[in-house]
Amino acid sequence: MSAVCVRTYAKLNLTLNITGKAGGYHLLDSFVASVDIFDEITLRARTDGKISVRMCGMGSEAILPADNAAVRAAQAFCRRFGTGGADIVVQKNIPMGAGMGGSSADAAGVLNGMSALYGKGEYAELRSLADGLGSDTGYMLRGGFARMRGRGEKLESIPDGMPLAFLLLFPGVPVSTAACYAAYDASPDGRREDTENCLRAFMAGDVAATGKSFYNALFAPACRLVPAVARAAQAARALSPLGWGMTGSGSAVFALFVSRAEAEEAARRCRGEFSAVAACSVPMSAGI
To answer: Is 70 helix (H, G, I), strand (E, B) or coil?
Structure first.
């Protein structure tokens, strides 16, 4: 195979509890879901072993190669399997700095794409590489609904169950992840039960109870750092959703609705400083 094209999906943290720290890292317990906003990655094989990555869209052109997760993923794959290189084009659609896992999605997409391109790499081998590239990169290899614990390396896939429809609000201002965790450490909340409650409601097919169980321990710190996050949450609540939350360390806020049609109608009603996009959950992928 000389060329492949893959889609790699954004994620939402429907819950995010902080359960402790180990080795200087925060430990999480999070119910995550993939949504149908995706980056598209095209890979073409080259025989000289070199890697080139071109980023397109969402301001990604400014990412330096040394900071580019797609570059690191391709290099790690080539080292592990001794393959040729690749010319890689990443068309960004996942907003940057939104807490939707765009960087991890690109790394996971490159690993999946390189595996298809060269016919090498079972899932367990790709997981090993992914876990070394970023906290939630292993999850992004297949996505879907999952419970993610520890630093993100402890994954439990959740049956697809009912589809979920969201309205996403983007403040357009990133939240520093490091600063957000530092702010949390200065005023921890100690809550633990939200992920368990949300999973129980989801697996029972109770969409209303699922929405009521959304929670993110980093929301209050993110609001203190970037007040636009609080305003986005207020705008989301004003639309009378079944539930609302923030993903990752921000800055994107989401609101849950019964159907995509209702989420799209809410997007039309949403006016003001935030861009609004409707999205739906997507099931776990088996790869390419």
So the answer is: helix
Instruction: Give tens-digit pLDDT for 184-220.
Output: 999 998 788 899 999 999 999 999 999 999 999 999 9
Q: Is 116 helix (H, G, I), strand (E, B) or coil?
A: helix
Where do the domains of the chain lie?
Answer: 3-157, 165-282
Question: 48 an active-site residue?
Answer: no
As a whole number of angstroms, the distance between CA 8 and CA 109 comes to 5
How many Cβ atoms are within 10 Å of 16's Cβ, its own excluded? 25
Query: Is 136 an annotated catalytic residue?
Result: yes
- This prediction has a pTM of 0.96
pLDDT at residue 199, as a whole number: 97
Q: How is residue 263 written in tokens? A: 């989420």
* Domain boundaries 165-282, CATH class: alpha beta
Backbone angles phi, psi at 239, to 5 degrees: -90, 5
Which among 29, 39, 136, 194 is annotated as catalytic?
136
* CA 286 – CA 184 distance, rounded (Å): 36
209 closest CA partner among 253, 242, 246? 242
Judged against a pLDDT cut of 70, whether residue 288 lies above it is answered with: no
Residue 286 pLDDT class (50, 70, 90 cuts): low
Interval 218-263: pLDDT, tens:
999 999 999 999 999 999 999 999 999 999 999 999 999 999 999 9
- CB of 95 closer than 8 Å to CB of 12: no
Q: Which of 11, 39, 92, 131 is catalytic?
A: 11
Q: What is the DSSP string of 14-41?
A: SEEEEEEEETTEEEEEEEEEEEEEEEEE
Question: Does CATH number 3.30.230.10 belong to domain 3-157?
Answer: yes
CB atoms closer than 10 angstroms to residue 47: 7
What is d(CA 51, CA 93) in angstroms, rounded to the nearest whole number? 22
